[in-house]
Specification:
heteropentamer; A: 355 residues; alpha+beta; Rossmann fold; OB fold (Dihydrolipoamide Acetyltransferase, E2P); six-stranded mixed β-sheet; five-stranded antiparallel β-sheet; 8 helices; C: 226 residues; mainly alpha; MetI-like fold; binds adenosine-5'-triphosphate; binds molybdate ion; binds magnesium ion; ModB_ABC (chains C, D); Molybdenum transport system permease (chains C, D); transmembrane (chains C, D); molybdate ion transmembrane transporter activity (chains C, D)
Amino acid sequence: MSVTAGFFLNRGAFSLDVEFELPGRGVTALFGPSGCGKTTLLRAMAGLEPEARGYLKVGDVVWQDGHYCLPTHRRSLGYVFQEPSLFDHLNVRRNIAYGQRRMAREATGSSMDRVVDLLGLESLLERKPQQLSGGEQQRVAIARALAVNPDLLLLDEPLAALDEARKAEILPWLESLHRELSIPVLYVSHARDEVARLADHLLLLEAGQLSAAGPVNELFARLDLPLAHRPDTETIIQTRVAGHDPDYELSWLDFSGGRFILAGNQLPAGSPARLQVKANDVSITLDRQQGTSILNIFPAVVDEMAADGRARVMVRLKLRDQPLLCRITRKSAAELNLMPGKAVFAQIKSVALLL
Amino acid sequence: MSVTAGFFLNRGAFSLDVEFELPGRGVTALFGPSGCGKTTLLRAMAGLEPEARGYLKVGDVVWQDGHYCLPTHRRSLGYVFQEPSLFDHLNVRRNIAYGQRRMAREATGSSMDRVVDLLGLESLLERKPQQLSGGEQQRVAIARALAVNPDLLLLDEPLAALDEARKAEILPWLESLHRELSIPVLYVSHARDEVARLADHLLLLEAGQLSAAGPVNELFARLDLPLAHRPDTETIIQTRVAGHDPDYELSWLDFSGGRFILAGNQLPAGSPARLQVKANDVSITLDRQQGTSILNIFPAVVDEMAADGRARVMVRLKLRDQPLLCRITRKSAAELNLMPGKAVFAQIKSVALLL
Amino acid sequence: MFAEQDVAALLLSLKLAGLTTLILLMLGTPLAWWLARSHWRYRYVLEALVALPLVLPPTVLGFYLLVALGPEGPVGRLMEALGGSSLAFTFAGLVIGSVLYSLPFVVQPLQNAFQSVGLRPMEVAATLGASPVDRFFSIALPLARPGFLTATVLGFAHTLGEFGVVLMIGGNIPGRTQVISIAIYDHVEALAYERAHWIAAGLLLFSFLLLLTVYRLNRRLPGART
Amino acid sequence: MFAEQDVAALLLSLKLAGLTTLILLMLGTPLAWWLARSHWRYRYVLEALVALPLVLPPTVLGFYLLVALGPEGPVGRLMEALGGSSLAFTFAGLVIGSVLYSLPFVVQPLQNAFQSVGLRPMEVAATLGASPVDRFFSIALPLARPGFLTATVLGFAHTLGEFGVVLMIGGNIPGRTQVISIAIYDHVEALAYERAHWIAAGLLLFSFLLLLTVYRLNRRLPGART
Amino acid sequence: GEVYIAVASNFAETARQLALQFEKKTGQKVRLSFGSTGKQYAQIRHGAPFQAWFAADARRPMLLEKEGRMVSGSRFTYARGRLVLWSPTPGLVDDGEKILRQGSFRHLAVANPRLAPYGLAARQALESLGLWQSLQDRLVRGENIGQTFQFVKTGNAELGLVAASQVLRDGMPVQGSYWLLPADLHEPIEQQAVLLKNQVHAREFLEFVAGEAGRAIILANGYEVP
Ligand SMILES: Nc1ncnc2c1ncn2[C@@H]1O[C@H](COP(=O)(O)OP(=O)(O)OP(=O)(O)O)[C@@H](O)[C@H]1O
Ligand SMILES: Nc1ncnc2c1ncn2[C@@H]1O[C@H](COP(=O)(O)OP(=O)(O)OP(=O)(O)O)[C@@H](O)[C@H]1O
Ligand code: MOO
Ligand SMILES: [Mg+2]
Ligand SMILES: [Mg+2]
């Protein structure tokens, strides 16, 4: 069910001109500053921008090309709009049921219960949208889009109005969802955290043009993209669960550069796991240190250095062939006399690792 | 211009029952899960919930008590609603000018230019709201509320739809704003970052009741509140700028427990500065270490320890009398043999410090 | 108190008003929808045309209808060519006249209502798999409810009270085209004021109760924020 | 082509329709606003009352108005007690009759329009310091524009074409209460078809151009998302 | 010096000619208001500012006299109406009574007997012919004689009993075929005029109508004069 798409739209001051592919499964994050065209692109993919020219192929089905345009209601998609946009005349239950009843595929009666449960909507089912708080409305909108079991999921900042606790509940479910359903998900987000956690792929949009596209871990590690110079720059590391320390409820995760120790032991041995390491959480020492609370210390080689503002440098280390970004002060870099090729140790606080 | 308030409202399944004070200046964050009543409280303070009983005094002026209720338009307030809520029939310029023209106090013609400039709205001034992206709409709504120079600012998640870069521009301005204007600001947010960065005080709301209220740095350091067990738990430390290292563009910041080194040298010597230290960014060593990129290392004493999930512990250190939260694995705590009273060193990566 | 003939006239009026309102809603809804949604450049010409019958006095409109329906009029010829007979002095003719005359009272409120529904709910419904017809019925109609209420009330009441057009093309045939408005008028003209008062009072009371019921059922739910 | 008297009738009609529409908007706006906003339990009674005059045939409504306004009617006596004279057969009387008869066509679209404005924009305006009157004029009115357009068009056109009420309480006095709709009717009755056709055609053309202009100016801006 | 005069619709055209002559002769301006006799009676009772009234029958002027609402002694018959069976189709009613008896038509238009004197006369005539019952379901009723004429004129009714004044100019039909009903088939249609206010120019106008010149004009328009 991979997606091939290209859209062109001219709107005076703004014009959209993109071509991209989405892998057949997994989450692709759509990332870019306000007003760069994220919503416009999603709308075009949903068939809601009649002026947009372009093509779109989902799996083997052509949704749109030069001559042909499948109308929105025939496109099997779930779309969470940037504003909740609930139907004011229907209560929560009937809002959620609306799309479900109209699915072509075999009705999955259970999916209603599942999304209601996931999004904590039991007590709200009989309310009208006007009687809900902002976050509650957004949860209903997410539930409504998820309940249709679509071939393509378009999410326009679905979690923006939710609190951390609720996000922490929904994110893993979205992850498991896309793993189970194996459909492509295009996810607009401003939060690097969410992106890092959820997305496999990344589309970087700037002023209507794609400035980069590719796997999240590659893009996050590139020093030439503006991504690298945000306060929350991070590296994504692909690992495999090697085993557990039952006494302390820790997990061992192997990657090409060594073995991570991670709090928690939910993941079964042998399963893949993605780690997120913030550049701010990595420190560099010349010697391997003892008597420290930091568990993850790896030998590394300085690969490249780039100024990051005037007081700091961004250092790309190599842990064998795994790149790792690390942000330190210029002063530290000078005092440690860092330069490409130098052998050092990278210290990563185990608790700074995310699934 | 301090604020004394109490509100009671019964709405069936939900009831609001709060009493609190806001200091005369500075930002108070209103924090709590979705549906806990944050929007309802703000609306009541604005006089928009006619069914809410209660009292509200802003400075010396009674806005509401048992017998009397100042109508909304006579309350000198700025309110950014949770949804942008722009006037559809007015373009951006006239949306912003709407409140400004109706101010009682001397017109500050410059404030329009200032907010337009700050929020990057120059190129959008002639657009209608329907022609704006979600984030652009929210920026206009913020500009409109700020342009009236109110006595009390109520902000309902104003930055939720904004990208990090734009947030990073607006946050310092909001800070400077409340410093200059010396008015109370009540700020709803789900993001601890924003709260930590902006707020001096905190109201913790749960199911319509205040579960805690007080200075941010105290509340963030309390291990008994749910706040302490979120992935982004942090400590706020009040410091004063002692001087600068011109070579490396670093600043020295003194607090009761020692001297921080901070990248950047914008702050003038002598001015106060607030530091945010994430519990995840603090590591503990038994000896003071050498040859490390970490610049901020302080002698500390273990004050209290609390389990944080099953694999981790939250440790409260004392740097003289400054508390500092630190999250490490249970394994590290065991290996370092930590216990209350033990003398250790706290390592904080300088780049992990925020203004 | 009420003569048999007056009762017959009342029943005929109700039948006429009901049928006319039904037809008006059926014709007016797609027309209003199209007017509310179309981006056709000359849409406003059609809007103006719809409101036009209003400016003619009903009797004059009735006169022209009579001309059109007559054997030499376009409609009359068409009917004859089709093997039918003239529509003048028939109930069907009354319906046609009333529909034409009350059209703007139905189309305009509906058009406004559809406009205020906005595009967004329709777009959302489309992404949820609802076809245009489906989303029209499941979303646009319920959201436009106040407009439908207004359209129905104005259309029905206006037809009940309509008089000039009906008089002109109906021929005032008791039991066939004599509606209640004409009956009251007749009594007034014939100086049978007492009888006119009774029927007028009865009609007013009946209509008031009807309107009361309709508006009462339509009360807004309390406590809605927006 | 047009006799002097017909021109006078046309001008009188325009004056009547214009003034009536103005008064209707002035009366109807606060009434519609109140109906749209009030939470009074028995609001619906008033709603039903507003629509009630519609169900009476205009001549009959006119007859009761005549009774009320005439020197022996309650309003007429009041006027006389106040030192004025009866309003029947005066231009003022026509205005009163037309206002009463066209009220629902103005109130209902306005009420719907105000309802669809919603509370939110008004709340926002209040927080920006706008008093109730201020925000009514600066927010509710412009947002209710389509409703005002409909109300104005229906009110104006309906008064132009109004006939029964005006004939009854006006007495068809040339230069004083003979409006264009009655003039056309007179010509038709007097078998002066030619003249009736010309005036009707002129009136239609004039109204069509007027409506065209109004609707054209009101065209929606293209490209709006919602 | 203006004179305001109410005139029954059927006499409208004739009254215009009379007024024109009168104006030429005296330089006085005459303002004519047309309407049905029933309506005008109600209006006069409620203070209409007319100085004289040309009714379509004798009944309502007599009522006025009884009520003392007119200048006593001023009532007189200004014209006597004649009924014709008329069809715009040449030859159709050449054989007057026969076609009525054959019944080879779908609609026969008459004026409403309750409202219009010509209607009453039509009823009396048909009753005299013994056809009133048998023709019941082919009768279409106009509110007044003008409307009845239009039913026929537009071809919607094949023939009708209308006023001679409507179809005869100087004794010849304007169009089609006619049968002048023998005067003994119905009671005479006495059209009476009254002076409502003792105003000098109004009195002069009535005198003019009753005089030689007036009678000539009335005769030429298809009425008989006493
Ligand atoms: N009109 C209403 N009728 C009944 N309950 C309502 C109504 N409006 C809001 N509520 C309920 O009141 C509670 C408080 O709502 P409020 O909007 O204040 O929440 P909030 O804290 O702002 O949430 P969020 O962060 O999601 O915006 C919620 O549980 C909500 O469901
Ligand atoms: N109807 C319109 N007419 C003209 N320009 C428009 C219109 N709608 C949107 N735009 C512009 O198109 C650009 C892209 O808008 P879009 O909504 O896709 O942005 P976005 O990336 O979703 O932003 P955000 O993160 O703020 O939601 C913006 O610059 C916006 O101002
Ligand atoms: O002119 Mo009349 O009112 O038909 O007799
Ligand atoms: Mg967007
Ligand atoms: Mg809220």
